Amino acid sequence: FTPCCGGHEVMTPPFYFIVTFWGEEHREYFLKLCLSSLLSPGNIPVIADDKRARMVIVTPEEDWKAMQDDKTFVLMKRYIEPLFIDLPPPKKGASKMLSMSAGHRLASMCAYENKALGVFVTPDLVLSDGTVRTLHRLAQEGRKVVLCSAVRFSWEGCKPEIKAMG
């Protein structure tokens, strides 16, 4: 339950923060950039009382295990329960984009089944302090879509893969 301005409580859906990644480089981005910013005072700590909220991490088991003793990951568990969804890394030559889409699909289904508000983040995303506070307020107001991040791509990095896919 979430307190509302009139002194009564309103049930808002839980937040599911969703991230998909694999490999040491992106795991470190997640821990050092995204998760660190999500742990700022105006973000995940704001919703720590909602025990239904989850940090949905779609990653290979190897990456999941490697994060367990990381100090940022341990701190996160004080505020929000992690939910692991196993995603094998793409096979050599396979489309990374299709693997990422498969991970997002699995997490989306999980959020939908639990009537949660899905917040998709990327491992290298840095959210300003207060973002989750604002998302929470907007959810209380009944807004349906409150954050749509536009991820910046480097054309040089994407061009060879797009070209190879025809």
Question: What distinguishing features does this structure have?
Answer:
alpha/beta, 166 residues, disordered N terminus, single chain, two-stranded antiparallel ribbon, 4-stranded parallel β-sheet
Structural write-up:
With 166 residues, the protein is α/β, with parallel strands linked by helices. 40% of the residues lie in helices and 16% in strands. The chain has six helices and six strands. The strands form two sheets. Strands 5-4-3-6 form a four-stranded parallel beta sheet. Strands 1-2 form a two-stranded antiparallel sheet. A hairpin with a 5-residue loop joins strand 1 and strand 2. The longest helix has 18 residues.
Write the layout of secondary structure elements.
Layout (H helix, E strand, L loop, with lengths): L1 E2 L5 E2 L4 E6 L3 H15 L15 E6 L1 H7 L3 H6 L4 E6 L9 H18 L3 E4 L10 H10 L14 H10 L2
Parallel strand pairs: 3-4, 3-6, 4-5
Antiparallel strand pairs: 1-2
